[in-house]
Specification:
The complex is a heterodimer of chains A (about 260) and B (about 290). With about 260 residues, chain A is of the alpha+beta class. Chain A is built from four helices and nine strands; from the N terminus they run ββββαβαββαββα. Chain A is globular. With about 290 residues, chain B is of the alpha/beta class. In chain B, strand 3, helix 4 and strand 4 form a beta-alpha-beta unit. The chains are: A alpha+beta (about 260), B alpha/beta (about 290). The interface between A and B is medium-sized, with 29 and 32 residues.
Chain lengths: ~260, ~290
């Protein structure tokens, strides 16, 4: 093995605060149609992390796309002040979105565009708003997973309504967090795990098991290639299950 | 380096509670491994179902456990092992071990001329043990006897009762007269009645617990594929106990009853027990 310390087994070293197995997701619940006005919406709960995702259609595109006949898919991300243990000031009262917010909403937008053929939308924009009601780690990955559900429901409705001729969605997308805590590779980190993680990683995948984004960061000592491979394998176990929850939620949504 | 491949748990499924005796044997034989147990209590018994139904149940159970992340699957249910092992292994996508071949191998190793097999009616009717034994040792005579009431006696806490003794005497008198030297306990419930069975057939008859036999085969299969989990370091290691929170149990119905019977079979109730659905419209079955 080339560098790095060994990933030991959970029961010998690190016990998860909620008693989960290292490769176990938190309980996942996706409630479709959580908001009545949006073209598509879902509440996603990954344990105590809760995010409302809403897809809205607008009959316009950003200036750089005007006149090309193409549409656009984008995302915005925000957190309620008391989504966190201490109150976080509303970004509207500061000087606009923080660097973190920018980074996250770009990630969500990129992830969704990776599975959307925007040419099929016409000159329209689908905006997916991801608003975090409660944050307990993994809000960006939950946002991506929930945003896809909202987007898929919206696309199905637009198709039924005859506003588009073909669904712009070319694939599915879901995301999950993984990390190394106490020398143990863990799936779906809670905040208390995330905040002490030695390695922190977000994995965004398509429904046919290809990657859209891999964001892996060593918080202290650098990590070895073997650890990266382990984390990706762990992420695959979680993402496969998340896709099943998504499909079920989309099937349950009103058409 | 200890990898995820080694660190993942071993999945075990049974039509209900009987497979807990297999879990107990695996826990004893492989103390460093983690286990996920699925008891399909909503659809028990499998013994009276058709082949295609048992196959479908087996596939759904395998997919459920496989989705949780397992490195190996043990089909603790005799009926599912007898009827659908290849289809289950394909669905699981991981190496899969059934109870029948393990039990047959252990019996053949212990016997010379005659092997008795006691099992549920469905398992006896399938002839799976007879085939497995004859494949290994065609010269050995196989005497099969269905003992359907044993399951109820075990589940209802009558394992060590006069009623059990009476029923055992009735079922096993033929086997005793045949003077079989080895008797396969071909149903996962039967090890619970071990002492009564032994009393009736005689101390001299070697009882083959298919759970113990499968544990030996699982240990060998793990070693062969380099999938063993690293032993716990001495310092600070938590001693493993049956049913502790490192083993997770899933049932498809009646968790309370399962918990009660588990306590009877194993001496303690599972710390982590969850009711799930393993079937559904989707290709990958999800947990609710």
């Amino acid at each position: 093995m080339s560098g790095g310390e060994k990933i030991a087994s959970t029961d010998h070293t690190y016990t998860r605060t909620d008693g989960r197995r290292p490769e176990e997701l938190r309980s996942v619940r996706i409630t479709p149609d959580w908001l009545p006005y949006a073209e598509g919406s879902a509440l996603i709960e990954m344990g105590e992390t809760r995010v409302v995702c809403a897809a809205s259609l607008e009959e316009r595109v950003p200036p750089f796309l005007r006149g090309q006949g193409h549409g656009w898919v984008t995302a915005e991300y925000a957190m309620l002040p008391r989504a966190t243990h201490q109150r976080t000031a509303r970004e509207a009262r500061r000087n606009g979105p923080s660097g973190r917010t920018h980074e996250i909403q770009r990630l969500i937008g990129r992830s969704l565009r990776a599975v959307a053929d925007t040419a099929l939308l016409g000159e329209r924009t689908l905006t997916i708003d991801c608003d975090v009601l409660q944050a307990d780690g993994g809000t960006r990955t939950a946002s991506i997973t929930g945003a896809y559900v909202a987007l898929a429901i919206a696309c199905r409705r637009l198709l039924r309504a005859g506003k588009i001729n073909r669904s712009p969605l070319t694939n599915e997308v879901a995301a999950v967090s993984v990390g190394i805590v106490g020398s143990t590779a863990l799936l779906d980190l809670k905040y208390d795990e995330d905040s002490i993680a030695e390695v922190d990683m977000n994995i965004v995948c398509t429904g046919d098991n290809r990657f859209i984004e891999l964001q892996g960061t060593a918080e202290g000592a650098p990590f070895a290639r073997e650890h990266l491979d382990e984390l990706i394998k762990l992420g695959e176990i979680g993402i496969k299950q998340i896709f099943a929850f998504q499909r079920e939620a989309i099937a349950r949504a009103a058409s | 380096m200890e990898t995820l491949k080694n660190n993942l748990p071993i999945g075990i499924f049974d039509s209900g509670v009987g497979g807990l005796t297999v879990y107990r044997a695996l826990h004893r034989r492989l103390p460093d491994e983690r286990f996920l147990y699925l008891g399909d209590t909503a659809r028990v018994p499998y013994g009276t179902k058709s082949l295609s139904t048992v196959e479908r149940y087996g596939i759904e159970n395998a997919r459920f456990l496989s989705a949780q992340g397992i490195k190996m699957l043990v089909v603790a249910c005799n009926t599912a092992s007898a009827l659908a092992l290849p289809a289950i292994e394909r669905a699981a996508g991981v190496p899969t071990v059934g109870v029948i071949e393990s039990g047959a191998r252990a019996a053949v190793e212990a016997a010379h001329a005659k092997i008795g097999v006691i099992a549920t009616e469905a398992t006896v009717r399938s002839g799976a043990y007879r085939r497995a034994i004859k494949k290994l040792a065609p010269q050995i005579k196989v005497i099969e006897q269905a003992c359907p009431l044993f399951v109820s006696l075990a589940e209802e806490g009558y394992a060590d009762s006069d009623a059990a003794r009476l029923v055992a005497q009735d079922y096993l008198s033929g086997l005793r007269d045949e003077e079989t030297e080895t008797l396969v306990l071909g149903c996962t419930h039967y090890p619970v009645l071990r002492s009564v069975i032994s009393e009736v057939v005689g101390e001299g008859v070697r009882l083959i617990d298919s759970g113990e036999a499968v544990a030996t085969d699982v240990a060998a299969a793990l070693a062969e594929r380099g999938l063993q989990r690293a032993p716990a370091p001495q310092k600070g290691a938590r001693p493993r106990q049956l049913c502790d929170d490192l083993y997770h149990f899933y049932v498809t119905d009646a968790a309370e009853r399962f918990s009660r019977i588990a306590e009877m079979f194993l001496g303690r109730a599972p710390r982590r027990l969850e009711a799930v659905e393993v079937w559904g419209h989707d290709e990958l079955n999800v947990r609710r």
